[in-house]
Amino acid sequence: MDKNSTVPTAIAFVAFVLIVIFFIFMIKGNVEKDTENAANEEAKQVGVLSDFYVSIGGKRYTAKTESTKAAEVFLNNLPIEIEMNVRDKNSISGVTYFKLSSEAKRHKKLLVGDVLLQGNSTIIIVTSSFKESTKYTKLGHIEDFNYIPTGNVKVYLSK
Questions:
Q1: Residue 155 and residue 83: Cα distance in Å, rounded?
Q2: Alpha-carbon 26 to chain mean position
Q3: CA trace torsion 55, 150, 74, 53 (10° rounding)
C-alpha cells in the first residue's frame, strides 16, 4: 500500500466515524424526547395537572388542580379576572366568560379553599367550610386559604 491510497481511506474512515456519532446523538435525543413525552402522557392519564394561582384581597394563593376534564379546560382558559360577589357567609362566586363541561357530584362537606364550578360557568370559592347537598364540579383547592369576604371583589386566576 502506498501513501496516496491510505489518505482517501483515512478520510473515508473519519467520515464514517462522524456519521456514526451523528446518528448516535440523533437516536439518543429521540429516546430522551420519547421518554419525556411518555412521562407527560402518563402524568395526563394519572390526572396530574399543574397548579394555578388565585389572587384575591391583595394576597396570592397556590391552588392544586383536580383531575377532571372541566379542571383541564379551566386551566387552559387562564388567566382570567372575575368579579366575585359574596354568595353567602360561606363562599364567593362569579361568572366566567367561557363555558365548562360539568361533572357535578354531591360533596358531603365543602372545605375552605375549594374552587368549584356550579352549572357550566359559575365559579365558587369556599371561604368557610360547610355541609352542602348541591352538586358541584370540583376544579381545585386553594392551599392555606384565609379570606373573609366583605363584599364584591376582583379575583385573578392564573397559571
A1: 6
A2: 31
A3: 20
CB 80 within 8 A of CB 86: no
- DSSP result, 41-87: HHHHHHT----EEEEETTEEEEEEEPSSHHHHHHHHT-SEEEEEEEE
159 residues of the chain, pLDDT tens digit each: 555 666 677 787 877 888 888 777 777 665 555 544 544 454 444 455 689 999 998 899 999 999 888 898 899 999 999 999 998 888 999 999 888 888 888 888 899 999 999 999 999 999 999 887 788 999 999 999 988 888 899 999 999
> Does the CA dihedral 142-147-151-154 come out positive or negative?
negative
**Separation CA 65–CA 38 (nearest Å):** 21
Angle at 48 between CA 46 and CA 50, to 5 degrees: 165
CB 111 within 8 A of CB 146: no
Q: What is the pTM of this model?
A: 0.69
Q: Can you tell me the distance from the alpha carbon of 28 to that of 43, in angstroms, rounded to the nearest whole number?
A: 23
